[in-house]
Amino acid sequence: MTTPIAHPPETLEGWYALHQIFRVSKQSIDPARLERMATGALTGLNKSRTGKRSKARTESSEGWSCMARLIGSSSDVMAIHFRESLDAIASAQDALRKTELGKAVESVYSFLSVTEAGLYHITAQLARAAEARGGQVGDAEYTRTLAGRATAERESQQVKRRLYPELPANMPYVCFYPMSKRRDASQNWYTLTLDERSRLMQAHGITGRRYSGKVQQVITGAIGLDAWEWGVTLFAQDPLDFKKLVTDMRFDEVSAKYAQFGDFYVGKIIPS
């Protein structure tokens, strides 16, 4: 027997995230002034997080904001916000709109999501255990065991870094793109068994770990929040590592068969 086909993996969530893509609406703004305006906006956004003047890289339990000048795009600026609640994301959105930068740009695209750690392996283990003892997913023993495993995962430093990421100090380049899993009749991610999805995601994670120290990756979940299902934000010291990582991952079975990608936005972090 196999685990239930339609059973989703359990997930852990952390900060809400908002990616905003802007285009300058006033053609007279030169790049240097645009960066000064972005720096000024960041000072206010991050000051409100801690109650004092602070840089975007300062660790905060309430999140942070950063901005990047987009390169090779029809748009000009990308703002990235991480906050502890959806209401706090709304406050950041409103605050940015009131700044000099906010008044000089127009919104082209936005992506709302929340940092996410998928517990594929743990969920598959517990589903198999429930089946073996004659129980089912969601019963009292499953729920009790899951709560304990999820708490332990949330307390691990690795998971904390995924749910509450810091802006890396020595990785000035950033790449963002949304993605979804295919739901075609012959290639439907959501009809695979939980064990199969767990196997594919483990193999995918091995590819990503080969770039540890070169690329910092932030995965955010957007199901129910956006038309796309996930957002991927990458930071790197060398922008060529974006190309190499995404190329390698596309040869993983999970991406080759089931991944769909949106537009890519690449730029350089504006110092705060």
Overall description:
By secondary structure, this protein is α+β, with helices and mostly antiparallel strands. It has nine helices and nine strands. It has helices at 31-50, 86-98, 100-104, 120-132, 140-155, 157-163, 194-209, 240-250, 253-258, and strands spanning 10-24, 63-70, 77-83, 105-119, 173-181, 215-221, 230-236, 259-261, 265-269. The chain has an eight-stranded antiparallel barrel with strand order 1-3-2-9-5-7-6-4, surrounded by five helices. α4 packs antiparallel against α5. It is globular and about 70 Å long. It starts with 9 loop residues before the first strand and ends with a strand. The model is unreliable at 51-59 (pLDDT under 50).
Query: Can you give the helix content as a percent range?
Result: 25-40%
Instruction: Specify the number of helices.
Output: 9
Give the H and E element order.
EHEEHHEHHHEHEEHHEE
Please report the distance between the alpha carbons of the first and last residues.
56 Å
**Percent of residues in β-strands:** 25-35%
Let me know the largest β-sheet: 8 strands, antiparallel, barrel
Rg of Cα set: 20 Å
| Unreliable sequence segments | 51-59
E-strand count: 9
Summarize model confidence as the mean pLDDT. Answer: 89
What is the general shape?
globular
Strand order of the largest sheet: 1-3-2-9-5-7-6-4
Find the structural class using helix and strand composition: alpha+beta
